[in-house]
Amino acid sequence: MENRITRLFGIEYPIVQGGMVWCSGWRLASAVSNAGGLGLLGAGSMHPETLREHIVKCKAATTKPFGVNIPLMYPQIDEIMQLVADEGVKIVFTSAGSPKKWTNWLHERGITVVHVVSSSLFARKAEEAGVDAVVAEGFEAGGHNGREETTTLCLIPAVRKATSLPLIAAGGIATGEAILAVRALGAEGVQIGTRFALTAESSASEAFKNLCLDLQEGDTRLLLKKLSPTRLVRGRFSDAVAEAEAAGATADELRTLLGRGRAKLGIFEGNLEEGELEIGQVASLLRGKGIQTVSEVMDELLAEYRKAWDDMQH
């Protein structure tokens, strides 16, 4: 499976674990890296010193490459970028903002930069900014989403036409068959969030994992479009958001409803009633699987991929 993505990161398989808030700590990132993929720490839910601690522990747990996902809207962005450089991190994925300001700064410090986009327009802008690769993330994804609501099946070929950069597909990918499908559309690698968020090594609460592993089709929906479109599990909090939006709530009113720490409450602390529960549509395909280890997931993905490839030859 060697290609531009594996060579760019120095990994065995072109499989990247999403840097998800409250899920992607050092245990998950190091486990994915040790299994031949690229693990990412999710800086979006970490204070600077917490991120430093996770980087140090990740270095101790793996000798393989790993990276950090940094939302560019992070309130202490200057501090977090300096910290990542000081700690010798060699791969940074940026998201939720323009990569123009930071790409050269990171390159000057020997750091590979990948940016997450939701449209071919943003992919071109990322290429102009000088990034080394892009992640094109479709509407199916969990958590924060693009405003365009373009599905992965439509997005990947559009971005492939728009840029010559190495392309990683994300959104709705949780099986080996899906990896093969997006590679056929022009992606050279995949970023997987939901599947890894629900593993034993993920720092999400057991209650959240078990809930998500019991979801049916249609049990998530995209809400909070006036703020930052976010895919949420149907439940008490998402119902309250939907009702507020239907009643014409302003962005400020939605911010008040959201409050602070709502995602931590749901994903990390396991409050399934009042928490913000973010997960991708593809969770319904995992129904009944139970909580697997990262090693089990990687073995399954690779076996499914190889079988799907062989089946297509006949």
Automatic annotation (TrEMBL):
Write down the CDD domains for this protein, in alphabetical order. NPD_like
Question: Is Calcium included in the keywords of this UniProt record?
Answer: no
Q: Which domain of life is it from?
A: Bacteria
Gene Ontology MF terms: monooxygenase activity
Write down the SUPFAM superfamilies for this protein, in alphabetical order. Answer: Inosine monophosphate dehydrogenase (IMPDH)
Cited Pfam families: NMO
This protein's UniProt keywords: Flavoprotein, FMN, Monooxygenase, Oxidoreductase
Q: Does the keyword Protease apply?
A: no
Provide the protein name: Nitronate monooxygenase
Source organism (scientific name): Mediterranea massiliensis
Q: What is the lineage of its organism?
A: Bacteria, Pseudomonadati, Bacteroidota, Bacteroidia, Bacteroidales
